[in-house]
Amino acid sequence: MPYGWQFPDEEVCILSEKVHRINCFGMINRQSKCYWSTTGQNINAQFILEYFEKFSFEIHKETFIILDNASVHRAKLMRERMPFWQKRGLFIFFLPPYSPHFNIAETIWRKLKKECLDPEDYFDKDSLFYTTNRCLANLGTNLLINYSKFNIN
Q1: 73 vs 108, which has greater pLDDT?
Q2: Which helix (H) or strand (E) holds 66?
């Protein structure tokens, strides 16, 4: 919870328990069009590679993706595949180290966790997956995010 209150003499206890976990890999452009994949498993270099492999066949024009410096993004497996993706028009670049503020996807994850998901969405795995995917599907239509006061086309 981002905030709370209690009476002066009241003891507050929050029991911890294992909760359902969801991992998302997502890409978003400045028009709030989102491409994502959710999983209950860990996201590793193989997961990212398979995602980009599929994505590289779906693009119709040169596409540039900017990734942060996560180890799965810079894995040998990924580096070896990049020349093939470039032939298909998919180019991958990396943000400078220690610059998550340049990554607009971080805004999505922050808003998703704090504004879109309710505590009851975590009660079961199906609810968490459904709500997360619904929120990501609404990006650009019902859920708009203004990244800056400047409109970049």
Answers
A1: 73
A2: strand 63-67
